[in-house]
Specification:
Aldo keto reductase, alpha/beta, Aldo/ket_reductase_CS, 10 strands, NADP, two-stranded antiparallel sheet, globular
Length: 268
């Protein structure tokens, strides 16, 4: 496993396991498959509706808590200072842990951005209380990040954004990096069917003797994005993490970068 180092010195595994849209009934099998395959970084959220079931798995695993990197996110309806603190307490109770490794604001509040700023103050409080090892945001633009910078005691350590070969996020990713923020990319293979059939990706898969998904995930890591693909198929879960025995050539990275269409496949 390769790692990134956050601005406060905490290390985060570059490859994680996403839990979005995993049915409650499937959580036990999928989480156990991921743990057995070697995943130690897991990405959760209150809105996913499966944190309690995930907590049951975590309470029974033989993997030591300090060997796991656990992320959750505060949802829009819980934004605000006091409500964020309550949402955090619910998250760690559901997950049956004493602390989180990373806590994020899931979305900037579209109607009242001041709520997001109040939420950030709550995250700073949790960080100072050592209930979280790192704090960050998700889906924040450059302008929104600047507003956080203006009022923050502690700058965001992570920005989790949609990122795949059809939306490479070059400008925002560079801004994050310049400000000491580690980039995380969700939908890292772009829901598969669109990107994995692209002729450039297929050609590179043949060149490296890997699957198209493995090439795209390797591109993410080679360009310094932390990723957490989600799959309900055991074979795919194992395949996704099997990308640490090769790296893409610089020219091949440029070929994938050139596929950018600034195309959102999720909510903008």
């Amino acid at each position: 496993m390769e790692n990134q180092t956050l601005s406060n010195g905490v290390t985060i595994p570059m490859m994680g396991f996403g839990t979005y849209l995993i049915d409650k009934a499937d959580v036990k099998d999928m989480m156990q498959t991921a743990l057995d395959a070697g995943y130690r970084h897991f990405d959760f959220a209150e809105i996913y509706g499966n944190q309690a079931e995930i907590g049951d798995v975590l309470s029974q695993t033989d993997v030591a808590r300090e060997d796991l990197f656990l992320t959750s996110k505060v949802w829009n309806t819980d934004q605000g200072y006091e409500s964020t603190l309550k949402a955090f307490d619910k998250a760690i109770n559901d997950l049956q842990v004493d602390y989180l490794d990373l806590y994020l604001i899931h979305w900037p509040n579209e109607d009242n951005f001041q709520l997001s700023l109040d939420t950030w103050k709550a995250l700073e409080t949790l960080y100072k209380q050592k209930k979280v090892r790192a704090i960050g945001v998700s889906n924040f633009s450059e302008d929104q990040l600047k507003q956080v910078f203006d009022m923050a005691e502690i700058k965001p350590m992570v920005n989790q954004i949609e990122r795949h070969p059809y939306k490479t996020q070059a400008e925002l990713g560079a801004f994050d990096t310049a400000n000491g923020i580690v980039n995380e990319g969700y939908s890292p293979i772009g829901h598969g069917h669109l990107i994995l059939e692209d002729p450039v990706i297929v050609e590179l898969a043949d060149k490296y003797g890997k699957t198209p998904a493995q090439v795209v995930l390797r591109w993410q890591i080679d360009t310094d994005f932390v990723v957490f693909p989600k799959s309900s198929k055991p074979a795919r879960i194992k395949e996704n993490i099997d990308i640490f025995d090769f790296k893409l050539d610089a020219d091949d990275i440029k070929k994938i970068n050139a596929l950018d269409q600034d195309k959102h496949l999720n909510y903008d």
